[in-house]
Amino acid sequence: MENTAEHQCILRNDPPVEPQPGYHKDGDIMIGGLVTVTSFYLNEGPFLSTPQSFSGNSFPIFLNYYNFLAFVSAVEEINNSSELLPNLTLGFHIDEPYNNLLLTYRAAINIFSGMETGIPNYSCKTSGPLAAIIEGFSTEQSIEFSSLSRIYKYPQISYSSGNLIMSDTEKFPYFYQTVPSELYLCAGIVKLLKHFGWTWVGIIASDDENSMRAVQILSDGIEQNGDCIAFIETFQNSAFLMYENLQRIYKSIKTSSTKVIILYCNRHYTEYIKQTIIWEASGKVWIIKSESLFFFPSYHSKRKNSFVFTMTKKNIPSFHKFVREVNPLLLPNDSFIDMWFEDLCNDRCPKSIQRSCSSDKTSAYLIHCDVINSGDSYNVYNAVYALAHALHNMVSSRSENTKWSEESEKFFDVFPWKLNQYLKNLHFKNVLAEEIFFDENGDLVIGYDIINIITLTDGTRSNEIVGNYNPYAPTGQEFTINEEMIIWESSFTETPPQSRCSPSCHPGFRKLSLERKPVCCYDCIPCPEGEISNHTDMETCMKCPEDQWPNQKRDACIPKVITFLTYEEPLGLTLTFICLFLFFINTVILGIFIHYKDTPIVKANNRDLSYILIISLMLCFLCSLVFIGQPDKLTCVLRQTAFGIMFSIALSTILAKTITVVMAFHATEPGSNLRKWMGTRISVIIVLCCSLIQTVMCIAWLFIAPPFPYLNMKSEIGTILSECNEGSIVAFYCVLGYLGFLAGISFIVAFLARNLPDRFNEAKYITFSMLVFSNVWIYFIPTYLSTKGKYMVVVEIFAILSSSAGLLGCIFFPKCYVILLRPERNIRKLV
């Protein structure tokens, strides 16, 4: 290719073309540079032939001039270095692409051919071979330009575009970036959303391939966090359709409840949108992927609360010195550039770049000197040094002892792709002692700064670095942000502002998804009983441990109250008083019967059995006291067994009394053989046998499955019931059933003897007492089973007291009435 190009150049007999001053510098190895300093918009329509000249509108991008100076500064430093490329000099050919694709191709051909009016496949170079191209295009232009650079196999190094598409090394093997990949930019934006709890966001993006891929990555990351996207609006890169797009996008912004909008497009369209009606929407936080190109004061009033993700910017002292001391006469001659250098004489400029000017005249059009570190100059600086180190490694590997020769030059000119392997394995420290190397995708291993931009009330702009995202940092240190440095827009009622489809569900509530709505749109409902939510926006409520219960707000678990029937509470105190009162009455009756033991009415009712019955009833009353208080192992054993045995003795005694009454009546009949059975012997046998059966059952119960103390955590809400577990429920109902059996036998016998002569009225009293006893215990069983906790104990105590009192009252009160109040009836003939 080279020989043909040179041959045709000679045939044309063209005179050497003088390069523009400041844009071209001869060297042993040349670096191509495509740096946009002026944007240019063509007025012509489609070209049918090669145009001789171009007409259109242009305006300077003053911030980009720092990029041009950084390029020149880095080359000068390398050439003055004794360590890097010591036997070679770097040259450069920088051309102006004017931010226009057509003019970009023209500028590239100029660099490839070595002429200012380039012709494809021609090479008329007056200096060394071209090594690579350093460019600062937008994402779309980088992709378009790569189709041209791949033809010539020149490495392409971008200092402005973190292109997602071109990170594919198979499709773009010669592409490198001195900016981090936009893949990490998307991850950083998701981290920022998560940090502030912004779950409801809108996205505005240009419809180019790179932006669409980034939007997809953003959408996936947002949804993986459980967040939602309110809307995704795209606009076409067409001036004819832009107005219609803007109206539609503005409507989406105004009608959506989201307060956070991600603007994902290149710098040119970012600045365009900032001058439209979209930027007028108040109460919004904007997240932008790159810094603005323009810093005109007239635009400041339109700036809203913005977070900008930009590559980490560093202050390069040697570059500041170069800007301060460079001779403008050696640079391209341009009226705009003259104005640019005049601004550096302004007193507002930092001392590091403030120039000494003979004239006090400064431009009032633009003050740019305070944003030297806001552009891509640091990226340009690294790009030039990265290429120089790769060249150094390549030249050193060919022959350490051979100087750069014509043969080596031709080899490099024919095989520029050989530089790729050295760029891929590049690893060096720049002047700031930072590690510089490319990852497997050709992206620079570096992170992003997060800048908070807002216009203050006095019209000045706050532009502070408030955080950073570096995916290569140690785990847990990738994302940092300093909220204290952030200045929020005054229209926000709370800071940081909340951006949610639905209000947060506070602790004590959980989220309820709405049908046909995103997951971020939901209702808040209280947690059910027994469950809590102790964090905001919980999907489900949590159950408390068994020994704990939710508090009133249902946002925390608190220990359950252990409840049991105590002597101190009114109910326990009342039952204790009733028990003691009945015990006292029982004692009085026993005393009356002992005192009047020789009276006919006491003798006629089997005095010994009466004593046994009264004493057993006294013990029954005392048994109820065992049910009061916190259950323990001893009281649980005594409760049912003592109650069962004492009641069996009482009922056995009543049965014996009933049988004795019947036998006494029939023994008076002539010729009856029952006389020999009359006496205490049969009564004692009945009492002992009947009560012994109950005692054996209770002992068996204790050996098989005895009652034990038990904390019931499930029966009552919010409390722990301290109660006695019956152990064997079969044994418990056998004990109760046996008492019912004794009561039933006594009732039947007494009922059959109810019509005996009045003087033998004991059967009537026993019949009525058994009726009372049976009613109490019949009602006891369903009531006992339907109650819980201490009220179950109360029911059992009440059954014991009422049935015992019924037996005592029905059998003994009539006799005491006669003994005490009607002594005239206490005679033998009336008994």
TrEMBL record:
GO terms for cellular component: plasma membrane. InterPro entries: ANF_lig-bd_rcpt, GPCR_3, GPCR_3_9-Cys_dom, GPCR_3_9-Cys_sf, GPCR_3_C, GPCR_3_Ca_sens_rcpt-rel, GPCR_3_CS, GPCR_3_vmron_rcpt_2. CDD domains: 7tmC_V2R_pheromone. PROSITE patterns: G_PROTEIN_RECEP_F3_3, G_PROTEIN_RECEP_F3_4. GO terms for molecular function: G protein-coupled receptor activity. It is found in: Cell membrane. The chain crosses the membrane at residues 571-596, 608-629, 641-665, 685-704, 730-753, 765-785, 797-820. It is a multi-pass membrane protein. Keywords: Cell membrane, G-protein coupled receptor, Glycoprotein, Membrane, Receptor, Signal, Transducer, Transmembrane, Transmembrane helix. SUPFAM superfamilies: Periplasmic binding protein-like I. Residues 571-831 form the G-protein coupled receptors family 3 profile domain. It comes from the Eukaryota. The keyword Iron does not apply. Belongs to the G-protein coupled receptor 3 family. This is Vomeronasal type-2 receptor 26-like.
